[in-house]
Amino acid sequence: MSEKRILLAAVLKPVNDTRMYEKLGLSLSKLPDTQIHIAGFHAPLPTDAPSNLRFHPIFRFNRLSLTRFKAQQLYLNLLQQLQPHLIIACTHELLLPSMRYCQSTGAKLVYDVQENYSLNLTSQRNYLPVLRQLLAWSVRRAERRAAHAVSHFLLAERSYADELPFLEEARYSIIENKYKPAPGYTLPATPVRLQQVPLRLLYSGTIAEMNGVFEAVELAEKLHALDETVSLKIIGYSSRQDTLQRLKQRIKEKPYITLVGGDGLVPHQKILEAIGESSVGLLPYWPHPSTSRCIPTKLFEYIAYALPVLVQQNPLWASIVAANKAGLSVDFAAIQPQELLQRIRQQTFYTSGVPDTVYWKSEEAMLNSLIKELLN
């Protein structure tokens, strides 16, 4: 079998992205006689990548910059240079040029659906109402136009199978964002009790109002007033300067609340280290259509580290937390701090250990089997 070239590409995802590189890319690099190429936003290149995996940080511009319009041409140039046999488009923005390339060359196209982009655009108030509708329409139009040319869809969330009208059952697989053990990861000790330890709260990932960063701060303030061992670490990136400035002002002169990152991307390994050093993980997401049926990646990560969690009340998340004795479901908008502190201190977590279902291994096997079949 001659060597096959696989290209994974996204416009705004960094080339060292957790899903595109660490999970999909590294898993596919294990296939024999394959060369993996990852194209994305400019970021520090991993130094320990396998020899058959190469990076192409061809995108570098501000999120709303006019130079973003050059992205399609940069991508087309890369396609002509690499001549991949299979493309995994990790964003809707690259679907149409990928489709045209595949139609002209006979290459295979896979669409990695990481978000319900249309729903996110219409339900999240990041743009003016008219612009929201226009952007959502253009995204769904591109997805519908390309759907017939897509050999297979990878769905990061089970809910997308019901939400996305362009899907056909025989052509999609659910590849969830489960935890891929980092170098040095060891199975954590269980069960976990927090009766007499400092409570180090953690908010990790995207720093955004809708993701509950200010609810995390408010919770830390209330619990710290009752117990001086309570602290909060916020680690991640914020794409909105107004949110970041509000946050910095809010935590000013509160030494028990620290911010790591904020205006710059934080390496995933650093976030995992923070998880390992914490005692309670927070998932204070606002109840919202764009997130309520999705499983946050950090929930898999927190459970993999046997980190007790506080999650916003949600039937899907509550079932996962309850099944694994992983934490408590609470309403962050109506916290009773004294009662909550008592519950955290008295409960025993992870009484049956860390479940195998949170690990990436099962997803890797499914992914590699699928791609191997498509290449043949």
UniProtKB/TrEMBL annotation:
A Pfam family this chain is assigned to: Glycos_transf_1
Domain Glycosyl transferase family: 200-345
InterPro entries noted in UniProt: Glyco_trans_1
Keywords from the named record: Transferase
Source superkingdom: Bacteria
Keyword Transferase: yes
Keyword RNA-binding set for record: no
Molecular function (Gene Ontology), one example: glycosyltransferase activity
Protein name: Glycosyltransferase involved in cell wall bisynthesis
Naturally occurring in which organism (per UniProt): Pontibacter akesuensis
